[in-house]
Each structure stands twice: as structure tokens, then as C-alpha cells.
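Example 433.
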Amino acid sequence: MNNKRPIIKIKNIKKSFKQNDHQDLLVLDDVNLELYEGEIVALLGKSGSGKSTLLRIIAGLINPTSGEVVYRGDKVTDPANGIAMVFQSFALMPWLTVLQNVELGLEAQGVAKNERRSRSLKAIDVVGLDGFESAYPKELSGGMKQRVGFARALVVNPDVLLMDEPFSALDVLTADNLRSDLLDLWQEKQANIKSILLVTHNIGEAALLADRIIVFGSSPSNIRTELIVDIPHPRNDQNPKFRLLIDKIYTLMTSSANDLSTTYRYKTITLGYRLPDVQISEITGLLDMLIEPEYHDKKIDLPLVADELHLNIDDLFPITEALEILRFAQVSKGDIELNAAGKLFAEADILERKKIFANHLLSYIPLAYYIRHILDERPEHRAAEERFLNELEDYLSEDAAQETLKVVIEWGRYAEIFAYDYNTGQLSLENPK
Ligand SMILES: Nc1ncnc2c1ncn2[C@@H]1O[C@H](COP(=O)(O)OP(=O)(O)O)[C@@H](O)[C@H]1O
Ligand SMILES: [Mg+2]
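Predicted structure in complex with adenosine-5'-diphosphate:
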């Protein structure tokens, strides 16, 4: 592959966003990547790792802070003609029909009316929406809307197709359908597309579609590793080779520099750390499973754990992260193992569990400690959640701050280290001892 010239060359891309007066948020840190003809590349990374940001830079929608994107020899500074993008949210114009929505991109390129129409009709046909040309978006299901999204990208006859989690807003069956249709389209060369870059946080999806998988580290991101997939299409997720691949990707996503040392080093998190969006029942569910005799005292393969809990492997990820940052388990090289505290918790009764959890929350989750500290200090022992939200927004985006606060409140209420009133948004020490 390397003797070919890349279609797209991403060179030393850095991107930071202005956060507030004193701080910039560095999202991408020295990303290098090349896209070659004839390949589907999946860029896999956790939520918030900067995947969308990178795609937008490649598409010329935003500029990097430093570094450059070169497309067929030219530096990309504005949206380039040969590059099209499919977005996660369909972003269709509600007042335009399917046909008009698809024609929109061609209008911008100054294509004449007749040609616009015939090319759009063909694109609509290719994505399987024949007969829906005059329907309005509100008449379409999610899957059909995303088909329009694909048609809109295909109609400009792109050389490179960028896709930002295009299946993540769809239900499982619809997503499966659309994935296999995309694959057919690609293999039968019904479109002129030479290369596809697919951004996803879904390990299974990357394994199903990609010829090459790039694993993104997180905050700030650069490329942690890459993996060539040499399983022919259509891939069967029950095939042992496929299972092995999933296992390997999982290992890559959970391994860090820590794994090189023999003694396990827990990840230490800061006040502004984005907490995984995980409920207490998910944490206790995993602990309950790991204490069962067949798993006791050994390292368990994460894909096995996912199977056992009937979870998609991607949904397991935040839960294992929660166990790790709360220091109930060690997670490394795609395995998980309870530590002494995790075992103690799993074997304890409800009250004892709450105590252990409170102890870990206050010791290892700085935000929980901080909230409790403020409440302890105040004469009335109460504070508005906004106060903490504002503080978190120094480190996180508004959405991430909200989510993180929601998570710490749930964990803190379970541990009874503070109380929370939904109606007033007040945190207090009303019930807790
Ligand atoms: N326009 C922006 N201004 C400020 N911060 C942003 C902006 N866009 C993205 N971010 C931040 O950059 C980080 C990466 O975001 P994003 O690229 O959307 O991640 P992903 O697509 O991997 O979930 C997040 O912390 C997000 O809040
Ligand atoms: Mg994104």
C-alpha cells in the first residue's frame, strides 16, 4: 500500500479550542495519517477524543491550529470539491423534499439544473430511496433520513467520503442494513469513491467495515496505533478470526503506558476529568459478575465479560473505566481483574457496600471530594449545582460538564456523601451522615 501515493495526507495536525481567558483546550496533538486509494479506514476513539474535530479539519470546514491536510497535492483550507461528508445527525432541510435536499449540494457547485436533477435521481436510486423523491424529511424514518444523507454526499461524486458516526443515531437493525448497503456500494464501485474514512466509537462497526483501523488515544489525542484487517467481506461476527480481531482492538484501546510496568498503576484523575456515564447498577452488576466462582481471582477477557452481561462491547467500556478510576479493578491489555477492594465490595451487604463506595469516591474522584468539601464548609451545608457546573466548564464542554455532574451526583447519592434535590437543583448534606 505504501508504494502508492496517498490521496489524503494529514501532517502534524494540532488543534486547540479557546476555552476561557487563561486556558486553551488541546484536542488534537500531532496527528499524522494517510489515506490511500481503495481502502476503508476506521478511526476509532472514545467520545470526546476529537474524532469529529479531525474530520471537520480534513473536510476543510475548520482549520487546524497547526499542521496541514493535503488532498491530491493541494493544501486543504476550504471545503474541497472531491471530499464529501456524511454527518451523524442528518441535518436535512425540513422544508425541502428528498430530491431538493440532495440537489442542494450541486446547486452550491453551480451545476446546471437538468444535470442536477438527473444526478440527484441517480444518487437517490443508489441509496435505495427510489419512489421517495418528493417526500419530506418528516415523512421518513431515521434510516431513510440517513440514506438521504448518503445520497447528498454521493451526488457530488466524491473521491473521498468522510463519515462521522453515520450509523450511531439509528436503531441496531437499521444500522446493520445501512452498513451492508454501504459495503455493497463500495465493493460494486457504484460510486466514484476512492477512499472512505469512517469515524466511530463502535468497535464492532470498525471491525466489520474497515481495511485499516486507527486507534485514537484520548485528551489530547494522537494516533495510538493502527491495525490492518485482512478478513474478507462479508465478515461474520461469529467467525473466530473476527472475535480475535475484536479482542485485539479492545486490548489496544485499554492498554496504556502503564501496562509496561510490572506493578499496576491506577489512573489518577483530576477535578475536571470527564466521568464515564455509568449508573450504579451497571457498576454493581459488573462487580457481581466478577466475583462469581468461575471468574474469581483471575484476569477475564473483556469480550467475554461483554457477552456474559449481554452488552455490546462498546457499552462495557465506560463501565470498566468506572471500576478502574474508582479502583475496584485493574484493567489492562483487554482483561479485567478485581482488586482487593473490588472483592470486598462485591462480597459486602448493601450498607457496607455504600461505605466502601463512599470511601473510594472521596479518595479517588476529586470532584466528589470537592463537592463534599464545599458542602462541609458552608454554614447551611448546601450549594446550587450551577456552581459546580460553572467550575467544570473550565475544563469540559457544556455537555460534558453536565454529564459529568449528573454522574457524580448519582454516585454521591448512592454513597450517601451528599443529597440532591431535583426540583431546586440544590446539593446538600440533608440526609447523609
Ligand atoms: N467548537 C468547539 N469549541 C470548543 N470546544 C470544542 C469545539 N468542538 C469540539 N470541542 C471539544 O473538543 C473535544 C473533542 O470533541 P469532538 O471532536 O467532538 O470529539 P468526538 O467526535 O471524538 O466525540 C471535546 O472536549 C469538545 O468539547
Ligand atoms: Mg464526534
